[in-house]
Amino acid sequence: MALLRDGERYAFELVRELCDAHGLVTSEGTIYPLLSRLRKEGWVNTVWKESDSGPPRRYYTLTATGRRALDEFAGEWGPFKTAVDNLLDSEGSHE
């Protein structure tokens, strides 16, 4: 959802950007079910647009509800990451 924060994207763009991010290898087979779920939740809208280089593409944009969900997740991420980091750091101290 963070990749949609600044505007619309189509699924292959999302896959490419996730693959470019270190350690976030994914595929269209992974992203399409996730995007479908986000659409059903009302967090993204879709629109079909003609493409200059092939068949029409479905573009995804965040809805207002999706922005709120992303903001909520972002607010929870810091404490969650800290808790996981603490668990990982303490794992070595028990040996």
Automatic annotation (TrEMBL):
It holds the Pfam family PadR. Residues 2-72 form the Transcription regulator PadR N-terminal domain. It comes from Streptomyces azureus. This is PadR family transcriptional regulator. It comes from the Bacteria.
